[in-house]
Each structure stands twice: as C-alpha cells, then as structure tokens.
Amino acid sequence: MLRPLHAVCLALLLACAAAQAAPAGPGPIRFRDITEAAGIHFVHTDGSSGRHYFVETIASGLGLIDFDGDGYMDILFLNGAPLPGAPQPAQPPACCALYHNNRDGTFTDVTASSGLGVPGYALACVVADYDNDGHEDVFINYYGGQRLFHNNGNGTFTDVTVKAGLADPSLVHTVGAGCLFLDYDRDGYLDLFVSYYVEFDTAHNKPSTRGNVPNYIPPGNYPQRASRLYHNNRDGTFTDVSLAAGIGQHLGYGMGVVSADFDGDGWPDIYVGNDVMGNFLFHNKKDGTFEEIGVPAGVAYDGYGEPQGTMGVNVGDYDGDGRFDIIVTKYQDQVNTLYRNLGNLQFQDVTVQTGAGINSRHLVTWGCGLVDFDNDGVPELFTAAGHLQDTVEQYDKSTTYKERSLLLRQRGGRFVDITDESGALAKMVESSRGAVFGDLNNDGKIDIVVLNARSRPAVLINETATSNHWVLLKLVGSRSNRSAVGALACLTAGGRTWINEVRAGRGYQSAEDLRLHFGLGTNAAIDRLQVNWPSGLTNVWTHLPVDRVLRLVEAP
Amino acid sequence: MLLAFASPLGAETNTLPEFRVETARDYFLAAARQGLAEAGTNADTFFIQARLQNNLGQPDGAEKLARQALSLAPTRADIEIFLGGLLIHQDRMEEAAAGLRRAVATDAKVENGQRLLAMILERLGDPKGAEAAFTEAIRQKPRDDMARLFFGRLLLDQGRAREAIAHLEAACQLDPESRNNRYVLYQAQTRAGDAAGARQSLDKLRQLKAKEKSPMEAADNGQTDGPKMRAYAAEFHNEMANLLQQQGRTALAEAHLRQAIALAPEQLLARQRLAALCLRTGRLAEAKELFAALARSQPDELAWSVNLATVLLQLRDYPGAVNELERVLQLDPNQAEALNNLARAYLGARRQLPEALTLCQRLVASQPTAANYDLLGWAFYANGRTNEALEASSQAVQLDPGNRVFGERHRRLEQVAGTHP
C-alpha cells in the first residue's frame, strides 16, 4: 500500500510528467580529466599473470566517502592483488587507496594512515554509518573474504570484521560482488546485503582459448553462490539472516546490486544483477522476509525474455513519473537495458522505445547511472565500458579491450549519444569497471570517477556551462539510521516535482555520494520539500534556497 | 602439410592445408583464396566469404565482401539482408534500414526481410512503420513465431495488450517450449488484467525454466572454440559445394562436401548433400551407405530412412526397403512417402499384395493426387481387380491429362480389361 504522502508526491509527478521535456537546445555536457593535476597516482591492478584467472575480469569498483565529515567527497579506489604466477609485487604491495579531498581540486593519498590499505583482492565496497556514530564506515567485498572497517572519526579505520561477526572462512574461494547497506526492517540501524559472483580457486583454474588465443572462461564453468543478508544487532555486530529472510535460497551469479523502494510502500526492496541468468528482485514483505519476484515483475530478463550478462545495476527516475526505474549494464552483443517502473511491481523494458541501448551492443558495460549532469531536471545515462577479455581484438574485430564509455542524453523522449561532445570523457579509452557519481567540488554539477582496470582511474570534473539551478541534500537521520539510507525526498519547484532516495551501494560494485542531487532547471527556489524518513516520520520544508548544499536533520 | 583430396569423379581436385585449430586462420585464408579460384569472381563467392568472415569475428571484412557481392548483384535481397544484420550489430541502424528497404523492394518475400525491417524501424522510433512491416511479415509467413513475438512486444509497448496477446498466444502455440514467448505473453496478460491467463502463463514459464539447464550445465566446458572453428570451416565448404554444384562443377562440389564431413562429422548437412549427389550420379551403393549412416545417427529423423528406402528400391533390394519403410510407418503411420514407397516395394517384390492395396487406399485418402491414383491402379491390378484398377487409373488421367506415363498405363489397362479397341 502506498503511504499517503508518497501518493501525493506521485500524483503531482504524474500531473507534471508531460512537462518533463528538456529545455530546447541544451549546451554540451563537458568533463575535464583532473586525475593527474589532482595528484591521484593510483594504478589499478587485477593481479594478472597471463594465466587468465577468472577473477581478473571483474575488478574493481570504487567508492565516494566523506570519511572526515568535512562536507567534501573523498575517493576510495579498490584494487586487486597479485595472483599466483604474477610478477613479484612492487613495494609496497598493491592495495586499496584512500584519497582525501583537499577542497582545492587536489587530493592527498592518505591510505597509509587510514588503515584501509590492507592487502587483499578488493572487488566491491559500500559506504554508510552502520553504527550511527556520525562517521561513514566502509564494507569491502574481496575475492576470498569480506571486511568491515569502522571509521574511528579521526581519519583512521579499524578492521572490525571479526568483532562484527562478519568473518567467514567459507568465503576463502568466493569471488565477492556488489554489496549495500539498507535498513530492511526500519529499526534505525543499517543492515548489510552482500552478493557473490562464483566459487573460484586459482589452483583449479580452467584455461580457455579462442582461435588458439588464451582468454577467460565464462562464469557458468564455476559454481554459483547465494547472496547474504546480515541483520544489524545494534551493538556493532551482525547476524546472518539470509535463509530466514528468503534470500539464501536463491543461487546466483551476483554482480551489481541496488536497493530502492520500488513499490512506494516505504520498505526497501533489493535488485540483484546476475551474470548469465535472470536477475533477482527481492520484494520486502515488511516482516523481515523477502520474496523473489524478478520474473513476474518483468526485471529478470530483457523485454524478449532473454537473460542478460548483467554487470551493473542502478536506479533513477528517467521519465519523471515518480517511480524508480532500473538501468542494467551487460555483456557484448546485448544492449544496456532500461526498465520503466509501471507501478504495482510491474516493469516494462523500454530500451527499444527510448533508445537507451544505443551504441552499446559491441561493448561490455559496467558502472552506470541515471544522473542529471546539466541540472536541467532530466537525467542523462552514463555507462562505463571495456571488454573483460584482454585478448578480444585477436579474435573479434568488432570490439576492443579498451573502449570509450557512453554518455546519452534524453532528447524528444529518446536517448541520443552525446559522448563525442563530452570533452575528456570522449577521450577516455580504457577498460573501465566501476563508476561513481558525486559532486567532488560542491559546485552543484555531478562529477564522475571511473575505475579503469589495469590502469589509472579518471576523475572527471563536470564543467558543463549552464545557469540551471540545483540543490544537494545532505540528509541526517535521528530516529532513522544516521546516513538516512532509504529516506525518500520529494521536491517541488516551479510546478515540477522530482523524487530521489538515499542509497548506499549501487552501480557496478560501488558506493556513490550519499547526498541527493536535484537539477532544477530555471527554477530559482524550492517551493516544497518533503522527506519520508525510514523511521516513518515525515518532514516538510517550504521556500528553500537553491544552488547550495542543504543539511537537513530528521525532526521528531 | 598440404592435404590434397580428389573426387571419385576425378575431373578436378582441390588442395588445402590440413585443418588445425592452432592454425585455423591460415586454413580459412587458403580456403577463401581457393574458393575464389574455383568458383570465380561472382556475387556468391564473395557472399560465402563474407559469411565466413562474419563467423570469424571480422565484421569489417565481412561488410567489404558483402558490398563487393552486392556490387556484382545489386538486386540480391538476401545479401542486403545479411548486410543489414551486420550493420545492426554495429548500431548503424539508419544504414541497415535503408538496405532492408531496398531488399524488400527488390523481393518483398525475401526470408526474414520484413521482420528485420520491422525490428529496425521500431528501434529507430518508427512504430507505425514497424507495425506495417510486422503485419506483412506475418501475412507472408503466419508460422513465424519470432515475428509474432516481436510484434506482440511492440503492441504491448504501445499499450495494446489485447492485440499483443493474440500474437503471443499464436507464438506460444507455434513454439510451446519457448521461454521468450511465454514470458512476453505473461506480461501482456498481466497488463490486460487477465489474472487467470497470467497465472497460467507464469506456471508454464516456471515449468519451462525448471527444464532449462543451469548455467553450469550449459557452460561450454570444452574451454576451446576448436569445435566452433571446425563448424565454421565445414559451413564454408558446404556453401562452396552448393555453389559449385549450381555451376555444374560436380567433382569440386563433392570434394568440398567430403572436406566438410571430415571437419565436422557430427554435422549432417554435408552427408545429406553428398548422398543426394551420389544418388544423382548413379552411385547407389555409396548413397545407400550415406543414408544408412544418417538414419543410424538420427533414428527419429524419418526422412533419412525414407531416403534410404528409396535408394534400396532403386537397388532392387525390396526386403531391405520394406524393413526400413515398415519401421518408418510404425513411428508415423501417415508418412506419405513411406506409404508410397512401401506400396511400391510390395508391388515390386510381388509380395503382400493385399497390404500394398491397403497402403495405396490410405495414401489416396490422405493425398488424392494423380500419382497416387496411378499407384492405386497398379495395386488393384496386382490384386487381380482389373475394373477397379481401370477406375483408379482413369482418375489419374483425369487429374493429370498431360502425363504420358499415366495415359499409357491407362491405355494398357483398358486393353487388358477389353475396353480398349
């Protein structure tokens, strides 16, 4: 059942849906690559040795985190580690890297002092304040295990995996995948959902060739594993409730995951992208259990009933109708798929009608997002690209290991490819994996950070010339979880209404800016802002200023 | 090492390097060069090579060759269709649409032309054009379940769920095991508010899903694309054989078929074609062996047994033919060709004549053609029922008055019956 206030938001949105077209003749959306100038020297490794270990193909995601609480997004780059047969690691050995945002366009590598530079083959991460102490913590999913890092509030983190009850020796050969924090029982504490890709042991690697060229074997050659749901016991520990919650029965090849309230009932649902099989949609039944409804909801397969090689998944309201739609990235010879949320837990694959899959067929795509880069109130679609087969050019001339990512803009109800005009983004030819979106310099324009496999990342600052207005909402829970994960914001300005929801963990195994961004077009004031908190409380603000970051605390 | 192979006809030979997965590309290069030398510079040679290039993941090369083929045969709709497929994979939709429009303008009924055009028009944001093309595709080929699936999807996306259901139900009837058809039907029924239908479809969908192999079971555990490479090579030789046969170069065609069989013994097309070629060139013993091998490898494919029986009849091995045909009719009592051939076998062997007559009567009842009436006449005559033979023969002549064989047989029957002067 729809909560009444959410229903009002929805009615407003539906009434305004016809007015959602972008302003005529928008200027180009342009990015500048500041990676080098910003002092970011991180280089990703997948630990490859030439033996083509399966795990190398999927590394890695990344995260945005304001670990020191200064209001500026810092960056956590995940890294692989040498696998058997790889050259001796450089000193010090490769590990994840935490870069502090100096607020002047530069970053400082603070890995050594942070405690996050732990050796390990890191694949995915999620950021949020799981213990409500006001500091953003980090969970990292590795090949061979998982770790929870508690933010001590002084620039350092402590590995609390064992203490939190999250250590699990059975994961020693498990390839970790997307993870997220959510408050599935709405008790004010963030729970943890973790997906896994396959069971893989380098000692039992299966070699593969194509046209006598060595390559990576498909995931179907290795056993699947079910995702896990860990309940937060509110004392710094977690309990695995996967089976009781109806999650642990579903074996999958988990990749990206995202949580959203898809049916507007106030309870967070979970969407799990699976490689080479149908995706899962776990519907929250409000009693601590979930029901897997991917097929009946129309999000397991593409619109013609074909399973995708799903990599990343993300959520946004692409058509401004007040419901959260889903974007899915995929393997070569498929297209990025956009599912429109029709309500009542029914989705429609609108890829063909909207053109959302344009120019993606030859690509393997990963990180993705529906993001309003030019603040016109209509989201663009970004997908990071790059093949996972590093030898693909030798046997398939239709694609390459390093590819350009894709930026699409909505024009006349359809997506068009604007990558060519996007400045530094157009020049980035890499084998990209994770991509995160956030405002690194707090100028109201959403920037992109991309993790490129076996290469340097790209920090792409949004330099789009626009006078459109914006607002960033930093929501702070009091009765709800402190990070406000699951809080729904419904914003009205100039007769138009937008929604957004705080999500921790999304895209391709990555963590984005927890702040909510709204592009407001020419509207120079917010008429009304309503926040539905996970606690059940609702706060309403009127006549709020724009073009700034607003910190809003849950009021009883 | 060069592998030379000569056909039994001996007129022409061809030479290719030995096929090894490690040097497959060299093999393909040599095969392509040789194909040009053998079959000449013409649209078909280029087209065959374009398809090979595409299989080998060389879309640029495939496009170049397809365009060369088109330059030599600008009205070949099948080449335009192939080129359209290549362009679709590269997201060059406008170009693909232009080519497909040319293809259906040249040959409105070209295989899959209307359906492909419809799919592209839909992707280009022209649902009306897509609808017209889907409608035409289904009019031309009502049993095309894929056209119905895609058209159903289009209608559903336009909010026309009820119209979609009609096509999707038809698609499910045409291919009841298709998860895709059932999945989209379920969605259409849900949108149309047909809860009972949707529930039924969802149950069926779950049954189909349960029958599917798990990704691990379905995975290519071979860990090499050697079998695929061999299959591509075999396909190339098959196509070259077809072309050379059309050119009357039987010996070379046969050599290509033998090479295809050597490369991919599990593929049956080359064996089938070689058997047919042997039959045409009067090498009945070899044809018999080939059809027998096909029948052994696919016991449920009755066509092989029927063909084998046809060869056995020509070899006057009536007991062998009878055995084969009786087996076919046990599996499919109405298999017309088997009924026909078994009747002929009985009549030829002058045994089980009453059974031969029964078979002919069943045949005429299901297919009242001139040839079957003629055969019925023969069966009546063999059973000593001359008047009924004359009557059946008369039917054959009425149905096909220009057929001199039927006419002559009828005249002789009249003589026997004493009704002819």
Q: Could you name the key traits of this structure?
A:
heterodimer, A: 556 residues, mainly beta, four-stranded antiparallel beta sheet, 38% strand, disordered N terminus, B: mainly alpha, 23 helices, 2% strand
Structure described in brief:
Chain A has 556 residues and is mainly beta. Helix content of chain A is 5%, strand content 38%. Chain A starts with a helix and ends with a strand.
Textual characterization of the structure:
Chain A is mainly β and 556 residues long. Chain A has five helices and 41 strands. Chain A is globular, with a radius of gyration of 21 Å. Chain B contains 23 helices and two strands. In chain B, strands 1-2 form a two-stranded antiparallel sheet. The longest helix of chain B has 21 residues, at 226-246. Chains A and B meet through β12 of A and α3, α8, α10, α11 and α12 of B.
Topology at a glance:
The complex is a heterodimer of chains A (556) and B (421).
Chain A: H1 4-16, E1 31-33, E2 62-65, E3 74-77, E4 97-101, E5 107-109, H2 111-114, E6 121-128, E7 137-143, E8 145-151, E9 157-159, E10 174-182, E11 191-199, E12 208-210, E13 213-215, E14 225-226, E15 228-232, E16 238-240, E17 251-252, E18 254-260, E19 269-274, E20 280-284, E21 290-292, H3 294-297, E22 313-316, E23 325-328, E24 337-343, E25 346-349, H4 351-354, E26 365-371, E27 380-385, E28 403-404, E29 406-411, E30 414-417, H5 424-427, E31 429-430, E32 432-438, E33 447-452, E34 458-462, E35 469-476, E36 488-493, E37 496-501, E38 516-521, E39 526-532, E40 538-544, E41 548-553
Chain B: E1 2-6, E2 13-17, H1 24-39, H2 43-55, H3 59-72, H4 77-89, H5 93-106, H6 113-123, H7 127-140, H8 145-157, H9 161-174, H10 179-191, H11 195-211, H12 215-218, H13 226-246, H14 250-263, H15 269-280, H16 284-297, H17 302-314, H18 318-331, H19 336-349, H20 353-366, H21 370-382, H22 386-399, H23 404-417
Antiparallel strand pairs in B: 1-2
